[in-house]
Amino acid sequence: MFLRINTRLVPGNRSHALRHASVLIALAFGTALVHAQPSGMTLSEALQLSLQRSSLPKAAEAAIQASREAAVKAGQLPDPMLKVGIDNVPVNGADRWSTTRDFMTMRRVGIEQQWVSSDKRAARAHRAQRAVEAEEGNYLADVAKVREETAKAWVTVLYAQRSLALVKALEQQSAEDLTAVQASHRGAKATAGDVVQAQLVATQARDATQKSGLELQNAKLVLGRWTIAPVESVSDQTLVLESHVPNLSIDDLEKYHPAVLTVRRAITLADAETEVAAKERRPDWSIEAGFSQRPQFSNMISVGVSIPITVNPSQRQDRDIAERSAMGTRARLQYEDAVLEMQTEIRTLAATLSSQKERLARLKAEVLPAANQQVELATAAYRAGTGSLSAVFSARKMQLEQQLQITELEKDAALTWARLEHHVVPHELASAGEARQ
Questions:
Q1: Distance of CA 103 to CAs 84, 98, 234, Å?
Q2: Which residues touch 233 (CB under 8 Å, ≥6 apart)?
Q3: For the segment 371-419, what is each residue's pLDDT rounded down to a tens digit?
Q4: pTM of the model
Q5: Cβ distance 415 to 243 under 8 Å?
Q6: 352 found inside a domain
Q7: Whole-angstrom distance between the N-terminal and C-terminal Cα of the chain?
Q8: What is the residue-wise DSSP string for 297-347?
Q9: Above pLDDT 90, what percent of the chain?
Q10: Among 45, 198, 216, 400, which is 20 to 30 Å from 232 by CA?
Q11: CA distance 80 to 253
């Protein structure tokens, strides 16, 4: 809550003017002490709602289910083919178009089965399972995106609330000052210039409040886009800007960072594709058995085997193998690049966050006390009759600007932390095929 002390910055009440500084000193610690939203949606609740309601993870889950359905049939034999027909029907003579009078005419029924070797079917099943894992990687990537965007939207709402609370406090104080100066002017204790200055400060404060209100409204809309629910406010909780992500090893990145996990699984999928292409070099045989019926003559059975002839394997089957092998090389190179990119991004974000935290500590330790002291000096000078009211207003404006600057820097640091901490998935969500919130 805000400490608010109502006094009049006029010569007749200069002994109390210094108390105005107390108001802004309290505001200086607004990011830690402001509780304009004592209750509201917590970050954890926002993350949970976004995963439960967002369409992105649900769409990825549907893709996983589709891959699983395809994987079930990958290791199966093709369906057999039923074959029926009539052979040797005469087309001229006395028996033309008759199916019963000519001794060579036969009614035939048979079945044909394409035979796929067990090792080839095993390779296809292996490839299908790798495709399922690749879709699971895409699911985790969507989970990470939803979590990161939700966290950033939540942080934006949090600091929009805090900024609005700061400018609202200034607006109210400016309105009270304007009322006091106008009353003092009527009593000939303040000049017309003091009134104009107070009016200008009050107008600027109202404009800042309107601008901050719009920013907060827009931030809530963005957060509501991810939670799929209206957002009244977020909980004014203190964020601990510490991240475990910079300490993750390459093995951990392959488990928890969707981008690295996806390219790693792309390698296994490409290798499975190469294995299938190598197995497909050997053609599939087809086995056929049939029964032929002849009127007034002996019935017959037939058996046969169809064997595809690979007339130019170096230009067909071997090309398929080379193609898949090249795709495997591509996947490995993309993996190396993705690891380097992720490591660079993590180090950059970690360094940025560390710098922002250092700047925050320095601003709070050095700049805020100086701004507070400037307000005190300007107020004391005005109280002693050696300073002007405009100097007090100017000092207050600068103090508020410093407070807003710190709030903005805190927001930037929190956004950096949100990107760093939430662009990987939590351990409990990283289990393939079981990632659920």
A1: 19, 11, 91
A2: 37, 39, 40, 41, 157, 161
A3: 888 888 888 887 787 877 778 777 877 888 888 888 899 999 999 999 9
A4: 0.76
A5: no
A6: yes
A7: 35
A8: S--EEEEEEE----S-TTTTHHHHHHHHHHHHHHHHHHHHHHHHHHHHHHH
A9: 37
A10: 400
A11: 46
Overall number of domains in the chain: 1
* CATH number of the structural domain spanning residue 416: 1.20.1600.10
What does the block give as tokens for 329? Answer: 């090389």
Is residue 4 over pLDDT 70? Answer: no
Phi-psi region of 3 (alpha: psi -120 to 50; beta: other; left: phi over 0): beta
In a domain, 434, yes or no: no
Three-state secondary structure call for residue 18: coil
Of residues 202 and 16, which shows the higher confidence score?
202
Cβ atoms of 270 and 341 closer than 8 Å: no
Residues near 284 by beta carbon (within 8 Å), at least 6 away in sequence? 114, 115, 116, 117, 120, 308
Model pLDDT for residues 284-336, shown as the tens digit of each residue: 999 999 999 987 788 999 999 999 988 888 888 889 899 999 999 999 999 99
Give, as one character, the DSSP assignment of residue 15.
G
Q: Tell me the backbone φ, ψ of residue 35, rounded to 5 degrees.
A: -135, 55
Q: In the structure, what pLDDT confidence band is assigned to residue 102 with cuts at 50, 70 and 90?
A: confident
DSSP string, 341-366: HHHHHHHHHHHHHHHHHHHHHHIIII
Cα 328 to chain centroid, rounded: 28
Is 403 contained in some domain? yes
In a domain, 299, yes or no: yes
Write out the residue range of the structural domain in which residue 110 sits. 11-429
According to the model, what pLDDT value does residue 177 have?
A: 78
The pair phi, psi for residue 111, each rounded to 5°, is: -140, 140
Give the integer Cα–Cα distance in Å for 305 and 182: 108
CB 424 within 8 A of CB 248: yes
DSSP for 60-126, please give it. Answer: HHHHHHHHHHHHHHHTSPPPPEEEEEEE----SSTTTT-SSSSTT-EEEEEEEEEE--HHHHHHHHH
